[in-house]
Amino acid sequence: MHLIDPDLIQEHNGHQLQHVARDYAHLGEQLARRGIDVDAVRQRVAALGVALPSWGVGTGGTRFARFPGPGEPRHVFDKLQDCGVIQQLARATPTVSLHIPWDQCSDWSALRETASGYGLGFDAINSNTFSDQRGQAHSYKFGSLSHSDAGTREQAVAHNVECIRIGQRLGSRALTVWVGDGSNFPGQQHLRRAFERYLESARQIYQALPDGWRMFLEHKLCEPAFYSTVIQDWGSSYLAASALGPRAQCLVDLGHHAPSVNIEMIVARLIGAGKLAGFHFNDSKYGDDDLDAGSVAPYRLFLVFNELVAAAHEGVAGFAPAYMLDQSHNVTDPIESLMGSAAQVQRSYAQALLVERDLLDAAQDANDALLASQTLKRGFETDVTPILQRLRLDAGGAIDPVAAYRASGYRARVARERPARTAGGSSGIV
Ligand code: RM4
Ligand code: MN
Ligand code: MN
User: Fold this and answer.
1) In ligand 1, which atom is closest to the CA atom of 429?
2) What is the pTM of this model?
């Protein structure tokens, strides 16, 4: 089912076909000089899929306010439709990651069918025990899986099990658990006991995992708890995942670290330990800013992909990370931002694929720091745009997705169908 008229895409592409062909051929020539086959790189990038966050297609907000945009999705079906547009134009996002109970639905099979009509499947399903839902018996104000009260913990466990059941109906294969549990004051919480309680609850969720499922533990430095967070860093996440068992792994959200933390090194450690679940890609300057991937620090994203490509190149056993976006949009059209982020993820991957691994290994072994860093950077400094354009073109997408999207008038069209949301209030997005 086409959400954007294919003729419009074709017409839009028609203007640029020749340029893309020439640019691609030229890049192919340059890469051949380095012994790299441009078509092989393109095929590998084409095989990379990154999941869209269902919560990302609405306008987010800051802690202070939310400024809705026109045509915001009213419900999960609208969200899927917007995701379908992103996939149709940018061809990099074949799956969606749902967030329960933000995504409500009375007929999950119908949702699955609608998704497949847009060419979409479902990636990891996310639970939410960081905000209270209407009518729930116990409040998460002081935590969920690690709460001091057993009834609250039970409720949080039951919610996660329910998410697994929903995910099963959608074809998901993983549950992502991020909790806002922690404390705001020194002394508020017994730090060790809170972690023990978390583990005890997480164990019950782990036991409910169906065959073939994984449990992704997502750490976060702070927020909404500002003094201590129960799963604060990759160390706590790793301890928890190890205690739970082989199907529990650590998810790295790029925005969940202190500003100067070396994220690629964390990635390398987790790969080495067989505990890398996957990613929530986004970018940030100060904290969990949820900015578009690569918008602030594209080199950092490249360095993360360098670790991933190296692991695949070296055949690390069991290496199968899940790639997802997790971002929030305050000043852009979410569809445009998500298409941009997906392309940025592809770009970083392509650049990392260009790193000449043998030369890098040799320079590292010889302790030639300068040559090693130059070899690594050569990948990053290569403009791989023609590869990305070609693979979108080959897959029936748009050479320039944002331009095609703007020309399609999709946002204005849905703005007529979807009533405007009222501004104000805080976002609830953290
Ligand atoms: C959190 C975390 C989770 C996401 C929520 C919306 O900070 O990143 O992954 O589900 O935000
Ligand atoms: Mn996240
Ligand atoms: Mn976050």
Assistant:
1) 6
2) 0.97
